[in-house]
Amino acid sequence: MSDLDISTPATERRHLRLPVAATVFIEIDAATSTDAEPAVEVCTARDVSRGGLQVTLSRALQVDQLVQVAVRLDHQDTEAPLFLVGQVVWCQPDEAVPATFAAGMRFLDVAGTEYQRWNDLLIEEENRGAD
Hints:
By secondary structure, the chain is mostly beta strands. 12% of the residues lie in helices and 40% in strands. The chain has one domain (10-130): Thrombin, subunit H (Beta Barrel). The protein has one helix and six strands; from the N terminus they run E-E-E-E-E-E-H. The chain has a six-stranded antiparallel β-barrel. It is globular.
């Protein structure tokens, strides 16, 4: 079962969900978009964890689709976004916000990304919450 599967009980998840706000930029590949060029979707994250996050966006993503993601934790105004590769784990219409989709993605440890820095930042957030 996936770490981000919405049917996964919280007790079975590998990573703690953190109450941090984040702005997420997702590059939608032209091959999977209706546009001729890649599009960038600006989203707000929910359910942030070291393993990935959930976003609300205006278009559906395909399960297993790989996307380039830039994430900026909102309370870290001076920090540049972290660049990561995400794999879509699930996507469904968002019942809370009409005409949008909710998607869960896991981050992949890929060379050339800031995967380790993301983990370090989220560990700091976890420790801050434990204090």
